[in-house]
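Long-time lurker. I teach an intro course on protein structure, and each term I like to show students one example going from raw sequence to a predicted 3D structure in token notation. This year I'd like something fresh instead of my usual example. Would anyone be willing to generate the tokens for the chain below so I can use it in lecture? Attribution to the forum is fine with me.
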Amino acid sequence: MTCRLVGRAEDQIDALLLESARKWGIAAAGNYHRLMLTAFTALAASPMLLGSRRIDRIVGVRAYPLRLGRSLVEPDQRAGQPRHIVVYRLGPDGIVEILGLAHDRMLLERAARRMQRGSPR
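-- Reply from a regular --
Happy to contribute to a lecture. Here you go:
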């Protein structure tokens, strides 16, 4: 299965990885990117992946903490302490749509609403 980035997800991910490279170096940013891609692939294969949950009061939108995806990546390529949560939904065609990433300090429902508004249905 595949997934697709919708709305501003791609720009958000690019900015996040650039900031990661500035703060923690290129290798760490590469590991974070690998973790994201691995999590996206796992969600595409199983949208109700263990550890994912629905977001209250937003129909059809789910969240998956990247920290849970660490075990899916080779130990020497793991991101240190992932702090982001993948916000996604199942599109009308059955493909997982990645709406964006929320930092774990953010109010998840508010961030998810903002991401959903910015992505056409």
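Some talking points for your students: The chain is about 40% helix and 20% strand. Residues 3-117 form a domain with the YaeB-like fold fold (CATH 3.30.2310.20).
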